[in-house]
Amino acid sequence: SALLALLVAPLARSRRDGPGRARLALFAAMVLVPYAIVGNVLVLNSAGFAVRLLYYPAAGVALLAAELAGRLARSLRVPRPGLPALGLALLLARAVFGDVSMWTSDEALHRRALEVAPGALRSRLFLAERYLAEGRLAESRALYEAAVRDAPYDGASWTGLGIASLAGGGSPDRAEAALERARTLLPHEAEVHYWLGAARARTGRLDEAERSMRKALVLFPGLIDARELLAELLARDGRYGEAAEHFAVLVDLGREDLRPKLLEARRLAQPVPPGR
Q: What 3-state class would DSSP assign to 270?
């Protein structure tokens, strides 16, 4: 915005060509005023940068370019200045429409974003999560590893790396290391504690896994996966009564597939009559 103002101001101050000066001022305002609203110029706001924020200011830029090109053509006495302008417009249109392919899907858009800005964290995480859901584990882990390398402060990247490392029978030790880092960055995120507990359960550290599940449920009692794994750990440890309580909550929440485990836990929790 400041650069645009510096470029236009000398032309706008010219005492000649009053209508042209007014056009310059109008076109510059079309760029500066709309962008000032979202560009943290007038007030601080939470709008992140996006192409859509430039749609209206771009109209001012186009009009300014046309005005300046016309002035340049007149000063150079270029015959038929409309022909070069038309050629330039066609070249720019070809460039624009050639890039439309990135909008065919979310994946194509984020892949293109990484081509333009290889360190784009949001695009890395989007693609890594998409690939993880599709079972493309190697690609997912590679993206998460790049994310934690370039943004070691981002807890979501470490969480994703831990989940991707656990998926498909991956390394629980590697997953636990990543999730421990995520826990230090996101100590109040229930899902981080759940996945950390899942990694610990995979390595047989059941007491620590249980503590992680309980912490996850304190932070978010509705985390069904954490409650289910906690019930499984309690049943494995012979604490059938407490396991049955958690299985009952899950069944009440609609997990009818766990009803057999609830009934079995209740049966095993019954005291054995004397003499049997």
A: coil
| CA proximity to 84, closest of 98, 60, 65 | 65
* Residues whose CB falls within 8 Å of the CB of residue 241, separated by 6 or more in sequence, listed in order: 265, 269
d(CA 99, CA 110) in angstroms, rounded, equals: 13
- Written as one letter, the residue type at 124 is R
Q: Tell me the two tokens of residue 261.
A: 């485990």
Local structure of residue 239 (DSSP, 8 states): -
pLDDT of residue 35 exceeding 80, the answer is: no
Q: Comparing C-alpha atoms, which of 232, 226, 257, 254 is closest to residue 244?
A: 232
Query: What distance in Å separates the CA atoms of residue 189 and residue 179, rounded to the nearest whole number?
Result: 11
Please, what is the Cα angle at 132 between 129 and 138, to 5 degrees? 120
In sequence order, what DSSP letters do the residues of 97-156 get, joined into one string? HHTGGGGG-HHHHHHHHHHH-TT-HHHHHHHHHHHHHTT-HHHHHHHHHHHHHH-TT-HH
| Sign of the alpha-carbon torsion through 123, 124, 126, 131 | positive
Neighbours of 216 (CB within 10 A): 26
| Paired tokens of 27 | 């076109």
Biggest CA–CA distance in the chain, Å, is 114
**What's the token pair of residue 106?**
């979310």
What does the alpha-carbon distance between residue 185 and residue 189 come to, in Å, rounded to a whole number?
Answer: 9
pTM over 0.85: no
At 123-163, the pLDDT tens digits run: 999 999 999 999 999 999 999 999 999 999 999 999 999 99
